[in-house]
Give the backbone structure.
Amino acid sequence: MSLVPFDDRDGQIWLNGALIPWRDAKVHVLTHGLHYASAVFEGERVYGGVVFKSREHTERLFRSAELMGMSVPYTVDEIERAKAQTVAAQGFADAYVRPIVWRGSEMMGVSAQVARINVAIAVWQWPSYFDPEQRMKGIRLDVSQWRRPAPDTAPSAAKAAGLYMICTLSKHAAEAKGFADALMLDYRGRVAEATGANIFFVKDGVIHTPTPDCFLDGITRRTVIGLAKARGIEVVERAIMPEELEGMQQCFLTGTAAEVTPVSQIGPYSFEVGEIVRALVADYDGAVRQRMAA
Ligand SMILES: Cc1ncc(COP(=O)(O)O)c(C=O)c1O
C-alpha cells in the first residue's frame, strides 16, 4: 500500500471544468457531501492509456447522481472528454480513474436544494486491489455482521458514497481478523457481494451468482457473465443462501479494482482455484487488453 498521502501528490486533477494542480484540488470542511454523504462516484481502470468501458461508467455515474437527486452540470460527452484529458495529463498507461460528484458548501443542513453540484476526476496508479502474491492462490473472506440494505432503505443501484459506510466497517473488521475482505449478506440473509466487488460461485461446471436486486450490478460482473457464456458455461443468477456455500467448488470476485480475483475461503468454507476461475481471470485480462488494442 502506498504511503504517499492522496492530498500530497504530483499531477493534475480535473475539477469543475479544468485541470488544476493535484494539491490544490481541495474542498472546505463545511461541504454537504462530507457531512451528509451527498456524493456519488465511479471506479474505472485504464489499460494501455484507454479507459475500459468508459462510457458505461460515465452513464452509471449520471444514473447514480439522478438517483440521489443531483443533476450533473455536464453532459456524458463532456465527462468522457474530461476523463480522457485527465488520463492523458497524468500520463500513466495503466491506472485507476475516480470521477466524483458531490453537493458543495452553499447549504449546510439535511436540505441542500441549491448547493452546487461539483464534479472532479482524479487518476492514479493502483496496480492490484488485493495482495498480488495472495491473489492467484485465492483470497480469504470473513462474513460481515453488516448487511446490504433493502432497496427501499437506500438507493442501492447508485454507487453512492453513503452505501460504502457499511463496506468500510465490514472490511476493517475482516482485516482486523487477518482476512482480505468480507462477504456481505443482504437484508434477507441472502449472499450479496464483497465490500467492493460482486461474487460468483462454481458448482459442477455451472456458475451461480446472486441476483443484483439490492446491490450494484457491476460492469465487471456483466462483462464476466458475457465471457463465461461465450465459453459455453451456464450462468445462473438467483438467490443464494449462505448454507449453500458448503456445496460450492470455486468462488471468485469481480470488480473494476478487483478485476477477477479467486477466493479460497469464506468463513468455514473452502474453495479450489479451479479451471473455470483461472480461465475467467485470463479471459478478463484478454478482454481489457483487446480493448486496449482497439
Ligand atoms: C460495493 C461494490 N459492488 C460491486 C462492485 C463492482 O462494480 P464494477 O464491476 O462496476 O466495478 C464495486 C466496485 O465498484 C463495488 O464497490
